[in-house]
């Protein structure tokens, strides 16, 4: 089994280019199912989750051409709806979270869709109510077979409706939008997720002929059209990678430039890292992080301890809380990390505690971190990555730590970070891929 071996404690230096956004890729690649015309998507990251979705579309009959390293052409002309019944679909469709977003487009175009319970990180309950309640509002019938673990939806035709989403679910909003663009009449989606990736999806759909307004807000209006056509689309840089690299620079005291970040799309992310005491400079569209021997966590204006919590966009993304938490372990000062959305995403702090970090896990949602101000270095250990973002946080901790660390289960990390070992080595990191089994405890 693949693992990373890291000899930490070395400052890094140089430039790094963020990959195309994983979570945007999963939305817009699903959207190619909405038309029989060609859709070309560029800046596609070469990562496990995206490659699995592309393979799944190929199995469904989509003509996929790999035009360049990061560019694909898709043409969903002859879709094999019988593939839904196959064991292969069950295994592949269930192996990633993003596969749920093929349901909306298939329902809209073919009047039916099935999907096995999707995978993704095990970070607490991950319900899908928003998706299926939304489809029901558009007139679809939904059933879940608990024996086969399959969700099925069908509708002879979809009809526009007023939909107040039960929560601002990211993939749920994307799915309902993709169903509504071909529904008859007007659909209004209120309490819609509105993060940049949803905006990108809407802009792409409009270029394909959809009529979506309210983009960027939580109130979307969609006038259904009969047919969509082809388009070209370029993915944004991955904002979670950008945040991860900011955290990496601070923890390892490195001077790093993150290239072409699309700063205006990063929302509150840079400000949160600034409140952690990290100095960031915008140079053109690059983020420059100088080498900082120390950084000090801000307090609230009244002097009380800072809380960093997640919230639906434009709030702070939950996917960067693990990174903020690891950054805090070496800051001066204290912070409360409050992970409101997911129930099991903070348990990885045990590993940081084993490395010497001062953290109290108050409950599954909240952890208090007492920063060590780099007076005490973390120490390298052997550990297993529980989920994608915790995995990268542990990787950052290991790069800052004294001595050798081994991180197992790196498949989790590679789900979302392209060639991370190669790119980190280019910055001077001592990281290599080894083949080893985790120690039995
Ligand atoms: C493939 C993909 O795109 N995955 C992302 C997507 O997952 P995904 O779309 O699965 O996540 P959702 O937005 O549906 O929900 C995430 C969690 O937050 C809770 N919730 C959500 C909205 C809300 O207003 N209140 C609330 O409590 C949900 O119950 C759930 O536990 O969005 C998540 C939230 O940004 C990210 O962590 C995932 O990386
Ligand atoms: C939780 C994440 O991914 P997924 O929704 O695919 O599990 C993530 O990208 O942080």
UniProtKB/TrEMBL annotation:
UDP-N-acetyl-alpha-D-glucosamine binds at residues 97, 319, 341. Pfam families: EPSP_synthase. InterPro entries: Enolpyruvate_Tfrase_dom (IPR001986), Enolpyruvate_Tfrase_sf (IPR036968), MurA_subfamily (IPR050068), RNA3'P_cycl/enolpyr_Trfase_a/b (IPR013792), UDP_GlcNAc_COvinyl_MurA (IPR005750). Signal peptide: none annotated. GO terms for cellular component: cytoplasm. Its EC number is 2.5.1.7. Its main location: cytoplasm. SUPFAM superfamilies: EPT/RTPC-like. Phosphoenolpyruvate binds at residues 22-23. GO terms for biological process: cell division; cell wall organization; peptidoglycan biosynthetic process; regulation of cell shape; UDP-N-acetylgalactosamine biosynthetic process. Cell wall formation. Adds enolpyruvyl to UDP-N-acetylglucosamine. Pathway: Cell wall biogenesis; peptidoglycan biosynthesis. It is found in: Cytoplasm. It comes from Arcticibacter tournemirensis. It catalyses: phosphoenolpyruvate + UDP-N-acetyl-alpha-D-glucosamine = UDP-N-acetyl-3-O-(1-carboxyvinyl)-alpha-D-glucosamine + phosphate. Keywords: Cell cycle, Cell division, Cell shape, Cell wall biogenesis/degradation, Cytoplasm, Peptidoglycan synthesis, Transferase. Belongs to the EPSP synthase family. MurA subfamily. GO terms for molecular function: UDP-N-acetylglucosamine 1-carboxyvinyltransferase activity. This is UDP-N-acetylglucosamine 1-carboxyvinyltransferase.
């Amino acid at each position: 089994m693949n693992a990373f071996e890291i000899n930490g404690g070395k400052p890094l230096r140089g430039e790094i280019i963020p990959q195309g956004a994983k979570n945007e890729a999963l939305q817009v690649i699903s959207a190619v199912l909405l038309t029989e015309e060609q859709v070309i998507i560029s800046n596609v990251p070469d990562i496990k989750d995206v490659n699995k979705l592309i393979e799944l579309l190929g199995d469904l009959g989509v003509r996929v051409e790999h035009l360049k390293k990061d560019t694909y052409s898709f043409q969903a002309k002859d879709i094999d709806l019988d593939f839904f019944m196959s064991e292969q679909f069950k295994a592949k469709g269930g192996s990633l979270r993003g596969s749920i977003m093929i349901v909306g487009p298939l329902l809209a175009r073919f009047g039916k869709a099935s999907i096995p319970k999707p995978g993704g990180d095990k970070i607490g309950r991950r319900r899908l109510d928003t998706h299926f309640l939304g489809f029901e509002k558009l007139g679809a019938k939904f059933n879940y077979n608990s024996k086969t673990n399959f969700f099925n939806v069908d509708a002879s035709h979809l009809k526009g409706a007023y939909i107040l989403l039960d929560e601002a679910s990211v993939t749920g909003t994307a799915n309902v939008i993709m169903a509504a663009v071909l529904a008859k009449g007007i659909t209004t989606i209120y309490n819609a997720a509105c993060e940049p990736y949803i905006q990108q999806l809407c802009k792409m759909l409009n270029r394909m002929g959809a009529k979506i307004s309210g983009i960027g807000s939580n109130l979307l209006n969609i006038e259904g059209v009969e047919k969509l056509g082809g388009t070209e689309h370029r993915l944004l840089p991955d904002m979670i990678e950008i945040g991860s690299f900011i955290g990496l620079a601070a923890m390892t005291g490195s001077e790093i430039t993150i290239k072409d970040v699309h700063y205006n799309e990063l929302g509150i992310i840079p400000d949160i890292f600034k409140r952690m005491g990290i100095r960031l400079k915008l140079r053109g569209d690059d983020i420059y992080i100088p080498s900082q021997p120390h950084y000090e966590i801000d307090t609230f204006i009244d002097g009380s301890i800072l809380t960093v919590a997640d919230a639906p966009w434009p709030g702070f993304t939950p996917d960067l809380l693990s990174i903020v938490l690891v950054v805090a372990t070496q800051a001066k000062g204290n912070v409360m990390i409050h992970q409101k959305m997911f129930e099991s995403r903070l348990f990885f702090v045990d590993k940081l505690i084993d490395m010497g970090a001062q953290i109290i896990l108050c409950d599954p949602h909240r952890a208090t971190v007492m920063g060590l101000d780099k007076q005490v270095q973390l120490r390298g250990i052997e550990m297993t990555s529980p989920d994608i973002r915790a995995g990268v946080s542990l990787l950052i901790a290991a790069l800052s730590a004294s001595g050798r660390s081994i991180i197992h289960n790196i498949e989790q990390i590679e789900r979302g970070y392209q060639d991370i070992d190669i790119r980190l080595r280019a910055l001077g990191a001592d990281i290599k891929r080894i083949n080893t089994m985790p120690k039995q405890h």
